[in-house]
């Protein structure tokens, strides 16, 4: 009779079957975590400790990866922002054609308004006239003849110099020409080219002024001495008179007013001889064509004499007292 030997593996198998059955029951009841084998938990805890170097490498790799990932994310965000900013279309401000035209019109109107304000302002008005070049004409006479007044627009008056010159010539024959120039901010200088009076011609008990250009004024005076200029006598031709008037007009003002009468007195030696009566009682013999050149020596000659007589300036210069 053979005894049956008990198989040692049967116990183990039985134990294992019991464990499996318990695990299945746990799965069915929903208690998986509580039924996990303790060995697996311990192995999980021991696994990091078993290879610390490897864990460090893995951790470093993970950190580096995380850092790289974050840097790349930041760079990506920056690039995206730049790209978005670059691609963002610029808002262009523009004006419609009618708006541009309105602005241009407004600018033109403002410029015109500023110009008009300047033209009517005191800064563009003549405050004073300075008259130069006159001998006998007064400042009032010149301004009246030209139609010049204070308060007139400065630039307009200055640019119309020829017009005012023509006006002056037409109203006063003694004005040959005048020119306007700007002296200062509100002052205009009036330079006058005056045709001076050189004497009088007596007619109908009146004395009519004669100008150096030979023309005679139509305003007769009752007294020749009112002008202090000489009377012309003895002239037979207009050419003789014009020549004498032209030369006499070149004399200085004091010398012209020192003459009382001029007589045309030719002789066989000098067909242009003039006999001039001076206000100081002396007489002068001189050629008509040399009057302006030689008459200037007369004041110095008579200043050395105590007698009256005849100063002969035809050829040389000598003085002969009256008998």
Automatic annotation (TrEMBL):
Compartments where located: Cell membrane; Membrane
Segments of skewed composition (Basic and acidic residues): 1-16, 33-48, 55-76
GO BP field: FtsZ-dependent cytokinesis
Topology within the bilayer: Single-pass type II membrane protein
Region feature (Disordered): 1-89
Gene3D superfamilies: 3.40.50.10960
InterPro entries linked: Cell_div_FtsQ/DivIB_C (IPR005548), DivIB (IPR026580), FtsQ_DivIB (IPR050487), POTRA (IPR034746)
All copies of domain POTRA, residue ranges: 124-195
Transmembrane domains' residue ranges: 101-120
Keywords, ordered alphabetically: Cell cycle, Cell division, Cell membrane, Membrane, Transmembrane, Transmembrane helix
GO CC term (a single one): plasma membrane
Coiled-coil regions, chain positions: none
Residues making up the signal peptide according to the UniProt record: none
Annotated family: Belongs to the FtsQ/DivIB family. DivIB subfamily.
Name the UniProt record assigns to this protein: Cell division protein DivIB
Organism in which the protein naturally occurs: Weissella jogaejeotgali
Designated gene of the protein: divIB
């Amino acid at each position: 009779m053979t005894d049956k030997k008990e198989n040692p593996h049967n116990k183990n198998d039985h134990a294992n079957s019991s464990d499996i059955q318990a695990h299945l029951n746990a799965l069915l009841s929903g208690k998986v975590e509580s039924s996990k084998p303790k060995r697996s938990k311990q192995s999980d805890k021991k696994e990091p400790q078993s290879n610390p170097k490897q864990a460090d490498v893995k951790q470093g790799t993970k950190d580096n990866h995380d850092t790289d990932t974050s840097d790349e994310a930041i760079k990506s965000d920056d690039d995206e922002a730049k790209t978005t900013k670059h691609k963002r279309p610029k808002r262009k401000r523009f004006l419609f054609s009618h708006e541009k035209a309105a602005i241009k019109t407004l600018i033109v109107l403002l410029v015109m308004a500023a110009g008009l304000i300047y033209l009517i302002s005191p800064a563009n008005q003549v405050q004073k006239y300075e008259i130069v070049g006159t001998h006998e004409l007064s400042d009032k006479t010149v301004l009246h003849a030209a139609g010049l007044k204070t308060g007139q627009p400065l630039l307009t008056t200055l640019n119309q110099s020829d017009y005012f010159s023509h006006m002056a010539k037409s109203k006063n024959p003694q004005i040959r020409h005048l020119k306007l120039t700007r002296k200062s901010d509100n002052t205009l200088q009036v330079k006058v080219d005056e045709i001076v009076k050189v004497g009088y011609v007596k007619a109908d008990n009146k004395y009519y002024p004669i100008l150096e250009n030979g023309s005679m004024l139509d305003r007769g005076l009752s007294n020749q001495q009112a002008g202090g200029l000489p009377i012309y006598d003895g002239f037979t031709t207009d050419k003789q008179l014009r020549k004498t008037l032209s030369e006499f007009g070149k004399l200085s003002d004091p010398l012209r007013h020192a003459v009382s009468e001029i007589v045309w007195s030719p002789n066989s030696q000098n067909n242009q001889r003039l006999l001039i009566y001076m206000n100081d009682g002396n007489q002068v013999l001189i050629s008509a064509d040399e009057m302006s050149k030689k008459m200037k020596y007369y004041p110095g000659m008579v200043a050395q004499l105590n007698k009256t007589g005849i100063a002969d300036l035809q050829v040389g210069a000598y003085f002969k007292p009256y008998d």
